Amino acid sequence: MKISDKDVLLVVDVQNDFCTGGALAVPDGEKVVPAINRIAQRFRNVVLTQDWHPREHVSFASNHPRKQPYDTIEAAYGTQVLWPAHCIQGTPGADFHEALEVPQASLLIRKGTHPDIDSYSAFYENDHRTPTGLLGYLRERELRTVFAVGLAFDFCVRYSAEDARKAGLEVAVIEDACRGIDINGSVAATHRSLKELSIPVVSIEAFF
Q1: 175 sits in which H/E element
Q2: Is 60 helix (H, G, I), strand (E, B) or coil?
Q3: Which residues carry out catalysis?
Q4: Which residues, at least 6 apart from 79, have a Cβ–Cβ distance to it below 8 Å?
Q5: Handedness of CA 53, 157, 196, 145 (dihedral sign)
Q6: For residues 47 and 43, what is the distance between their CA atoms, to the nearest angstrom?
Q7: Pairing status of strand 107-111 against strand 72-75
Q8: Cα separation of 47 and 60, whole Å?
Q9: Parallel, antiparallel, or unpaired for β 72-75 and 78-81?
């Protein structure tokens, strides 16, 4: 697969709290790092995203009496899964995995910074109205095709890819540079959704 200067690699949330030993560990999450480092060498344009929550964040189960992680609540913007407290601003858990090597990254998007709104997508908070600024950046730079990698496949990667498609961008997900949490069949649901939106799920080997 040929990569052009109008393509961008979107590296989603490769942070310590999503890796083994982290507060919200994705199974084998750190294993995406070598694959991302490898594929990133092919891209001139790279964007990083970073979950960056205040301690009082609405998505933390610990901020809701009598609620446990993976319970749900009804927020103003819809159903919200409650998570263990993770990626708290300025903590080691919010740092990128130390082995991640993407020195050419030109933009860092911090998401989930609003106490009352969670954010899975790199493009919009979960109210689907509050932008992160990524779409404007891509349009200003005339970057037209997004290749999404990172954590977790069935949440932040999925919703980033869906929002990219809905915004009129070309998009593909490099699945072997992702890992999923798989809550209540969420990985299978992600595959169905990507297929319905005609978002290709490809292998890293397609680029070599």
Answers
A1: strand 170-179
A2: strand
A3: 13, 111, 156
A4: 72, 73
A5: positive
A6: 10
A7: unpaired
A8: 26
A9: antiparallel
Residue 125 has pLDDT above 90, yes or no: yes
Cα dihedral 44, 190, 201, 17, rounded to 10, equals: 40
Could you give the angle at which helices 158-166 and 186-196 cross, rounded to 10 degrees?
20
Q: How far is the CA of 197 from the CAs of 102, 127, 182, in angstroms?
A: 29, 20, 20
pLDDT of residue 1: 83
CA 62 to chain centre: 23
Confidence grade of residue 120 (pLDDT, cut at 50, 70, 90) = very high
Q: How far is CA 139 from the centre of its chain?
A: 20
Helix, strand, or coil here: 161? Answer: helix
pLDDT tens profile 154-170: 999 999 999 999 999 99
- DSSP class of residue 122? S
* pTM beyond 0.85, yes or no: yes
User: Of 6, 5, 2, which Cα lies nearest the Cα of 145?
Assistant: 6
Residue 24: how many CA atoms within 13 Å on its side-chain side?
Answer: 27
Write down the architecture of domain 7-51+91-207 according to CATH: 3-Layer(aba) Sandwich (3.40)
